[in-house]
């Protein structure tokens, strides 16, 4: 066979003789729904049920950063204390989410927030930002809502009755 004819046939992209259809490369696209079905099956095996209407999930890390999920899919089994949160998560600093997460903070996070506020308040940019948001250092350091711990609740109640 002539090498020039062979090169010409290869350039045409046909696999057979004249009149045969050209080769079409089929690209197989996997649907996301198929992966979602596998995940749903695994969650059902763990007896997790869907929790609708969850707007956001914040996971607090020890280094004062927050793993923030906006509109995640949440599945839970409250009896076994198991939760599955999946979606697009973003790692954010605590200062970015402060006004919206104050009611979610625990005692450890509040302590780190106080330290962060004190260091932030010393900088000029921090003073301007806190003035714009309306948050003061006194607001963060206010412990009036937390009662003092007593050794015995009965003794404390007896003392309160005696005062009254």
TrEMBL record:
Domain annotation NAC-A/B: ranges: 33-98
Gene3D superfamilies per UniProt: Nascent polypeptide-associated complex domain
Species this protein is from: Entomortierella parvispora
Keywords noted in UniProt: Cytoplasm, Nucleus, Protein transport, Transcription, Transcription regulation, Transport
Pfam families recorded: NAC
Protein name listed in UniProt: Nascent polypeptide-associated complex subunit beta
Protein localization: Cytoplasm; Nucleus
Any one GO BP annotation for this protein: protein transport
Keyword Ribosomal protein among record annotations: no
InterPro entries, alphabetized: BTF3, NAC_A/B_dom_sf, Nas_poly-pep-assoc_cplx_dom
Highest taxon listed in the record's lineage: Eukaryota
A cellular-component GO term for this protein: cytoplasm
Family: Belongs to the NAC-beta family.
Keyword Transit peptide listed: no
Region (Disordered): 1-24
Subunit structure: Part of the nascent polypeptide-associated complex (NAC).
